[in-house]
Each structure stands twice: as C-alpha cells, then as structure tokens.
Amino acid sequence: xxxxxxxxxALVLGCALLLAVPVxxxxxxxxxxxxGVLAGxxxxxxxxxxxxxxxxxxxxxxxxxxLAFNAAGFVLLYALLRLQGVLxxxxxxxxxxxxxLAFNTAISFVTNTNWQAYTGEAAxxxxxxxxxxxxxxxxxxxxxxxxxxxxxRAFAAGGVSQLGNFWADLTRITLWLLLPGAVIAGFAFIAMxxxxxxxxxxxxxxxxxxEQTIALGPVAFQLAIKHLGTNGGGFxxxxxxxxxxxxxxxxxxxxxxxxxxxxxxxCLAFGxxxxxxxxxxxxxxxxxxxxxxxxxxxxxxxAAGNPLHITAGVSPAQGNMEGKDLRFGLAxxxxxxxxxxxxxxxxxxxxxxSFTPLGGLVPMFLIQLGEVLPGGVGSGLYxxxxxxxxxxxxxxxxxxxxxxxxxxxxxxxxxxxxMLAVLVLPAAILGLAGLxxxxxxxxxxxxxxxxxxxxxxxxxxxxxxxxxxxxxxxxTADTPWLNTTLGLxxxxxxFGFVIPVLAIAGSLAAKxxxxxxxxxLPTHGPLFIGLLAGVILILGGLQYLPALALGPIAEHVAMLxxxxx
Length: 565
Prior knowledge:
Blueprint: H1 3-32, H2 39-48, H3 59-83, H4 99-110, H5 120-123, H6 126-156, H7 166-191, E1 201-205, E2 211-215, H8 220-228, H9 249-274, H10 277-303, H11 307-311, H12 329-342, H13 357-368, H14 379-399, E3 404-405, E4 408-409, H15 412-438, H16 440-443, H17 450-465, H18 480-509, H19 526-560
Antiparallel strand pairs: 1-2, 3-4
C-alpha cells in the first residue's frame, strides 16, 4: 500500500460524497413531488400515461403494482432474448438465447442483479443489448429507488395508509434522474474513448501482420446506466476490465463515483424527508465507514502478495497483480471491488477469482451482509433501515424500554417482519449453495477442488441472492441447474426481501409520529452508529462464518502452508 494509492482512494470517494449532496437534494424533491421548473412537463407526462400522482396506494397496492410491472418486464425480455435471431439490429447474426439461459438472464436484469452466464459480445445482438438489457437497467434501478421512496414516506408520515404512487415514482425517477444522469455520463465516457456505435466489429492489423476482429457496439451509454443504476451487466464479458469499458484510470474512477452516488444521496434524502438531516448522515457514516474498512482489507491483502507466487520467483514489489490491470493498480482495484460488491453493482475492473483468499473473502462478505454498504440504488437504504429497526429493538431490550425510531414505536410485528427479511438471504444462499455442493449436477460446474471450489459456488449464490452479479470466474454457470437455481435465488433476494419491507412500511406509516422523550435513544450519534454497525456485522458473522471458514479462510491457511489444490 502506498500514499499515492490512498490519495487516489480519498480523491474518488471525496468526489462521490460531494456529488451526493446535490443528488440527495434532488432525490428528496422527487420523493416529495416537488419538481420545480419541470412541474408542468411532469404533469403532462403523467397525465398522458393515465397516472394521477395524488391517487396514493397502500403498501399492498404499491407492492402489487411493482410486482406486475416487473413480471411484464420479465416476459418481454425473455421473449426478446429467445427471438433475437429473427429480429433486426443483429449485425453479428446471433441465434436466439437458449431457454434456461434466457430465463436466467431475464430474471437477472429485472431484479437488478445483472448476473451474466454468457459473454455479451459473443451472444447478445445490439437490439437485445439496447432495448432489452439497457432498458431493464433503467427500470430495475428505478424500481429500487421507488421502493426506497415508499419506505422513506412511511417513516416521515404519521397515521396514514398510503405510501405514494408506484407509477408516478417510477416515471419521475426514470425521466428526471436516471435518464439525464446516464446521458451526461455516457457522453463523458465517449470523450474518454468508450465506443458508441451500431457497427458489429472493426478489423485491426496486428504487429506480426495478421488481422484481428474487435467487437464493437453501443457501449458508452449502457456503461453509464450499468454503474449509475448499480446494475453491473457489462456489454463485454470481462466487464470494466475490457479496454473499451475501462479505457483509463479516469474512466474507472468515474465508474466508482457513479455506482455509489445514488446510494449515498438516498441517505441524505432520507434525512431531509424525515425532517432531521442528522438521521441520514448517521446512515451515511455507517456506509462510508464499511466501504473504507473493506477497501483497506482488500488493498492490504492484495498488496501483501501471494506467498506461492513469491516462492515461485515472482517479485513481491507489486503485490498480487494476478487478474488486475496495471492501468488501475491495486488501489483503484481495491476501491472498485469494495464499492461494486458493497453497492450491489457487480461490475468488475479486476478478476475477483484471482484475488488472494482474504482479498476474495471481503467482497463476498460485503454482499452477505445484505447489500447495504452502501447497497444498490434504493435497496441499500431500505435494507439499512431494516437493520436500524433491529438495532433500536436490541437497544430497547438493553434498557427495558419500548424501542422507537424517528418517533415510531417498533413493536413485535415490525421486528418479526424485519427478521423475516434478514433471513431471506441466508436461506437462499446457504440452502441453494449447499444443495449444489452435494449434487453432481452442481459440482460439475466447479473448476477447482478444495476450499476454493467451495468459495466459487458460495460466491455465486451469494451474488445471485444479494442481487450483485459479480462472480468467481472459475465457475461454469451456463448449465440448466445453475441457470435455474441462481435465477430462483435472484427472485428470493429481490422480491422475497421487498415484501416484508413494504409490510413494515405499511405498519409504520399507520402509526402516529410521537416527539422524542427523555428516554428515547438518539439515533443520529456515535453510539447508534456503532450499534448499527455492530448489528450488521454480528448478524452476518453468525450466519455465514461457518461457510466462510470452510472456504476462503481455510484456503488462506493452506496458502500460508504452501499448499495448493
């Protein structure tokens, strides 16, 4: 680790935090329907769509609207992928996507997971990339932010039965946040050398005099929304490690900023809507603190190098550079990995499968903690609020008082629903990963034996259920078994979590908001920040430590002993 490396990390995170302030203000305006100079256009768009933003929805109606919309998106995307071979804008002449892979990919993009069991430039037509995958990048991200808006209103209001209007929220988020943000970022990427063309490929003459065909396509704008919406699905198979997606350190720095700015901004928006900016800053402090700790852990593990490489004669001066790019170095690779796995993005600028065991453990553990550090757009905030409810419940048990959060009494119903939400991820991750590790149809996909093979499978289901999309590259995921089970894990991680969260929101919205009393636990100071961080860590540790001990921790011990598998 170097001073220059830490300066790069500080500069990029500093830019993200500065940009999060105006983004947070605008998110608060969107959530409250205060459109400013855009109000007239907004009313016209909603009227043309037949949406009345004043017609609110209870939590059940909001949930059903969201589920129906995403079900329709799945059906349309699945059909597009299956039929791409006979549809236009297919200059490569690709066939339709096979059924199991189309099922997996459609669920992946609808749930904001963007798990890719295919190589984009070798499987997807331009039509599929633009009207299928890129469109779902906007809509799945918009769905997550809309759900966050509904939850924020529940905490801010008192004695109400409505959480807003899903159709109005989704339209405003897409038109007035994601679309302009992606256009601005897309043009910035074009200026940095990222291609944006309908051409299928370009021919290049190699140094020995041969000819190489280089895949091209509409990359820049899909790159922009994949990071801004914490989607992660790249146009190219190797994602942001490809020189057309990550042409420079400046481009990869912009990608890092984009994938955390909305999760950071939503915390600040929550404080504004709740009427106490300190509440949002407390949640933001937990997120940023974990990002820094994770970055330090990855940076330290990779800078220490791999003892097996050193024994084989590789210089330890550069650290473990296997699977990384010299253009980015260890510092930006560590920060990118910490933010992309903490932020439910899943894009990569380094191959996580090539990290040291402890370096690979950290991103896996970040996802297992619930994708709240900082989490996906929207999902990070409402996931963090679930942990906040559990934190005040535990604090209430300690002092013998009814727990409260933002003036709302947290009672048995909310705690039971919060625990149900928290248990969805380990049930999907450990249950399906364990099943795949004892069945030959699952173990046939493993590249490696021993602890690393276990880590490959565990990371896959962690990534799917956490709606992340990154992977240990040694796993052969394009099989009927994994396409199906990983798809089911994605569904559970997205919608199985959302249902109890919206039920909590409906319950809290109906409760009056009481003023703080002398015995109320302050939820904006260092004590609560530490308590919240501890609850997140302890829940994650208790649920996943046994599996991690058999995987990356055992592999690390074996590596120190000079053992390979």
